Amino acid sequence: MNRSSTIGAQAIFMSPAVLLAATIMLPPLFFILYTSVHGTSLSLHEYREIASSSLFRRTLGTTLVIAVASSVLSVFLAFIVAVHLARQTARRRTILLVLVLLPLWTSILVKCFAFTIILGRDGILNGILSWLFNTKIQLPLVLNRIGLFVGLTNSLVPIAVFPILASVLAIDDSVYRAASIMGAKPARILRTITIPLSLPGILAGLFTTFVYSLGAYIVPSLLGGPRDQMLSNLVDFYNRQVLDWPRAAAISVVLLAMISVFGTPLAFWRQRKGIGGARV
Amino acid sequence: MGDAKVLADHSAHAITLRGTSKTYGPVTALHPIDLTVDKGEFLTLLGPSGSGKTTLLNLIAGAIGPTTGTILLDERDITRMPPRERGIGMVFQNYALMPHMTVFENVAYPLRVRREHPKAIRAKVMESLDRVGLRGLEDRKPRQLSGGQQQRVGIARCIVYSPAIIMMDEPLGALDKNLREQMQGEIKRLHKELGTTIIYVTHDQEEALNMSDRICLLSGGQIVQLGSPDELYFQPRSRFVAEFIGESNLISGRVIGNDRMKIAEDRFILVPKAERIEKSEHLVMVRPEKVRISKLDENTAEGDNVLSGEVVSSSFIGGMTRVTINTENGLSITAKMVSARAHSRPEPASKVRLCWSPSDSVVLEN
Amino acid sequence: MSKIRDSHSQRYRVFGTALAVIIYIGLLAPLVVTVPMAFGPANTLAFPPQDYSLDLFKIFFFTSGWRGPLFESIKIALAAMAIAMLTGVPAGYWIARHNFVGKRLVTGVIMSPFVVPTVVAALGLYLCFSYAGLSGTMISLVLGHVTVALPFVVLMIIAGVVKLDPNLEFGAELMGAGPIRMFVTVVLPQLIPSLVSSALFAFLISFDEVVISSFLAGPNTITLPVKMFGALQWEVSPVIAAVSSFLMAVSLLVCIVAIALRRGAPLEGER
């Protein structure tokens, strides 16, 4: 367009955000990288240390297992919700959406508090079980891996619903009608139409929940046991308890690297899809 | 009205394009073109979608900058000038009215931008609403108006600040047929009253023929023919023009002498006299309404081209009836005639004779 | 003939709905549980409570230990919301409408908090602000919250702008309006639903933010979530039920307003 006038306007519109990005969004990442290599000495000492640390390895294992399991389960559950929502009329969908939006936007602390009440030794669930079987039941459901898994999945489902819902809704209704006229039963329609066509949303949901669960911090620290801590908690541990910032920073870098490794191919795939498809 | 014509006669150009082109990476939206629009002229940019007419419009309006060439507005170079300084008005296909403003505020917007006095604004807005017949609706919101009324607001908003040029981008494209014809008349009337230069974009050839002083027919990012509606209809230069504007019969033949063409073994037709390269291949165009159908035993006028053939189909389309005839020498010719009752229309499979006057045919340049 | 197929689809549908209902219950149960407890007695935490009172809310709103953090959180959230809106709205508009050199980079950096784990961002901010000598200050908390609120604002504004007709903006420019005037008179009025929801969400994000706050907070800048996080880690006191219900009520309010605006917009455009 007209270069000179546009550039002036662009400075006015973009510079505040660019300034923020340059002062409080980029520097923290730089500081982490910088601290992890002991500043200008560029030492890889911390990385060697964490590579040989059994605490780190165990935590890494826990993180991956929990992240994969909870993101896969939450996407599965979110898919059921999304298909159900997509089948409703626009009006009912709006009302039902509150049931997903409210958990999404409610503080994770509230949910963790509730789960300690529901899953505790004398909690609601054990209470119901005791009543059902008429004996005192005190299953350990919280401050262990079960509590962590339940709490994390619960907080991930609403996150995954929205991308999946968007792509389920994007499927043209006439495709369904055509399939059922040709004699396809609901299960086949689900398998041959709904799932393949909503794959972009499913993958987006998977990526988002996976990234989110890799960095989970509050849920493991409130619902997990001492042996169920994840990488974020390890970062916090080195930062707050040990006051070993280079170590904390190095673990952060590993966490960031993991997210790039898992995220890049997916982002790339989605972008190629995007160019080929919807946007002309 | 009279003043405007006088002004136009003194003929400073309203818009001059010199070698203006636009490419997007490897795609050429508009090849370098030269075009001048006279003051007070109604010029229509006509063409199929993707022909470059919207690109041309956007270049003049300043929505995009040209890849090469210059654009002069009233002898001023505006090639790199931001749209707001050009003083051009535009009427959009989808009206582009501000949904949050009333009709009055919409029309007043360009004046408020120019910081005119509130009194002057009120007077001008009322005057231009009067002109488009919307007085009394000034407090409505656009969504409370019909499509035709919304477009009138769009036009009022444009004429209110007397821009040097008004661009109209398929302004009637979203309206139904009857309303479209009525609005065409109104736009023509406004053009006469105001004497403004109007550059009008459409893909509807009838609209272009009806409204324009000149038509600029575009195809593939190039100007194919520029001229009055008459010229484009009666003197098309190429097959594209002949086929795009109106209906046409095209007969290919080889030049013999300066007024005859050979269209088959032993079959010649007469064409208007002109210097042509002997034996070169050309297309001859005859408009269907110029082709007359007669019974085999009727006499034909002296000097007319006459072919005989068999009626293939006859379709009644209201005022006119379209008849398709396969001639003895394998041509398919369409004739259009004023409709008669069914029993006296040519029936399929009947043998008929076709004739047209050589002066009604055009030898296309290529 | 069609009856056979119908009953099959019907059963299938009922099964899907039943599953969905179970999931909805699973999502909502943790929220619902806290409400009756918030109205329980001040000394014990039990579900369902033996008797009902407003004691917990009294403790929450009238003891300085909880009231201080509540006001701290409100102040910080208002400031973070203001900064995120003032910077994010123009940027979102420009990103949605223009191509410019470095657009991908700038957008990528602004959106990075969506993928960078919060703990990593929190540690980075902590290191940064310590270096700048801003540890434990309110400014550091506000700026920290802006990093997470800004991408939401920008994203919601982009989504809002994309739905607007660009011809309106071009038309206004053609009629002589400069970019800022055009933005204020043409774009912003049409964006009001997006503006309100993004402001509310920016507030809510900051108001509920725990991780960054717990890394950055000093003794004088303890926010409500930080206080609550600490309380949950060490001794689960009954007041938390009241705090939870309060936080949930705030979220519910924001969600309802956002949905009402989203519903309002298309209804208006239908005519």
From TrEMBL, chain A:
Residues covered by the ABC transmembrane type-1 domain: 60-266
Gene3D superfamilies hit by this protein: MetI-like
Pfam families: BPD_transp_1 (PF00528)
Protein's cellular compartments: Cell membrane
One GO cellular component term noted in the UniProt record for this chain: plasma membrane
Bilayer topology term: Multi-pass membrane protein
Entry keyword Cell membrane: yes
Major localisation: membrane
UniProt family annotation: Belongs to the binding-protein-dependent transport system permease family. CysTW subfamily.
Protein name per Swiss-Prot or TrEMBL: ABC transporter permease
Organism, as annotated: Bradyrhizobium uaiense
TrEMBL record, chain B:
Gene3D superfamilies, per database record: 2.40.50.100, P-loop containing nucleotide triphosphate hydrolases
GO CC, any one term: ATP-binding cassette (ABC) transporter complex
A Pfam family: TOBE_2
Swiss-Prot/TrEMBL catalytic activity: ATP + H2O + polyamine-[polyamine-binding protein]Side 1 = ADP + phosphate + polyamineSide 2 + [polyamine-binding protein]Side 1
EC number from the UniProt entry: 7.6.2.11
The ABC transporter domain, residue ranges: 15-245
Transmembrane segments: none
A single BP term in Gene Ontology: quaternary ammonium group transport
Residues annotated as signal peptide: none
Top-level taxonomic group: Bacteria
Keyword terms: ATP-binding, Cell membrane, Membrane, Nucleotide-binding, Translocase, Transport
Subunit structure: The complex is composed of two ATP-binding proteins (PotA), two transmembrane proteins (PotB and PotC) and a solute-binding protein (PotD).
Protein function: Part of the ABC transporter complex PotABCD involved in spermidine/putrescine import. Responsible for energy coupling to the transport system.
Entry's family note: Belongs to the ABC transporter superfamily. Spermidine/putrescine importer (TC 3.A.1.11.1) family.
Protein name from the UniProt record: Spermidine/putrescine import ATP-binding protein PotA
Species for this entry: Bradyrhizobium uaiense
Automatic annotation (TrEMBL), chain C:
Statement: the UniProt record of this protein carries the keyword Membrane: yes
Chain segments annotated as transmembrane: 12-39, 76-96, 108-132, 138-162, 183-207, 239-261
Membrane topology designation: Multi-pass membrane protein
Classification lineage: Bacteria, Pseudomonadati, Pseudomonadota, Alphaproteobacteria, Hyphomicrobiales
Name recorded for this polypeptide: ABC transporter permease
Keyword Transport: yes
GO-annotated biological processes: transmembrane transport
Cellular component GO terms, alphabetical: plasma membrane
Cross-referenced InterPro entries: MetI-like, MetI-like_sf
